[in-house]
Amino acid sequence: MASTADFRNGLVLNYNGELHVITEFQHVKPGKGPAFVRTKLRNIKTGRVIDNTFNAGVKVETARVEQRPHQFIYKDDYGFTFMDTSTFEQIVLPDAMVPFADLMKEGQEVTILMHAETEQPLTAELPTTVELVVTYTEPGLKGDTATNTLKPATVETGARIQVPLFIDTDTKIRVKTSDYSYVERVK
């Protein structure tokens, strides 16, 4: 059991009989009335995100999960195949259990959340940023570095993101996985 003071991003709750991950939370203390916590919970099985408000101090049931490092090997008709880097065992996860999959390339290190009691995989989590090569974008003009104007670009995994005007094809960039945003150029 945990209280609302223990909430953090990534905490897994047993809410309404299903496992949910806290993706966002905010403690609110209004001027009038009791404090509460506003949360966004992502259902681990379906991937659906719901908004929920908890009263401050209320107890919620948490699920015991373990984070295990895995390496992405390939994708086929059955889903995404990952290999445990310590035991070399392979597991296959369906598309719904792999958020932001279009930013993942072969050989990518990911963390798979495993339910501690049942040893069942719950979801795959990419690192907060990934390094990818731009495969196509419109050419930029010399001197287009002063404004914050963005243009569309396609990266090596096929994902489309917005990049600054000075980024060209074959440039290696760092991308934030939570919102597909450009972070910086990589040397």
Automatic annotation (TrEMBL):
This is Elongation factor P. The keyword Iron does not apply. The keyword Cytoplasm applies. It comes from the Bacteria. Pathway: Protein biosynthesis; polypeptide chain elongation. It is found in: Cytoplasm. Pfam families: EFP, EFP_N, Elong-fact-P_C. PROSITE patterns: EFP (PS01275). It comes from Hymenobacter humi. Involved in peptide bond synthesis. Stimulates efficient translation and peptide-bond synthesis on native or reconstituted 70S ribosomes in vitro. Probably functions indirectly by altering the affinity of the ribosome for aminoacyl-tRNA, thus increasing their reactivity as acceptors for peptidyl transferase. Keywords: Cytoplasm, Elongation factor, Protein biosynthesis. Gene3D superfamilies: 2.30.30.30, Nucleic acid-binding proteins. Its main location: cytoplasm. The gene is efp. Belongs to the elongation factor P family. The lineage of its organism: Bacteria, Pseudomonadati, Bacteroidota, Cytophagia, Cytophagales. Residues 67-122 form the Translation elongation factor P/YeiP central domain.
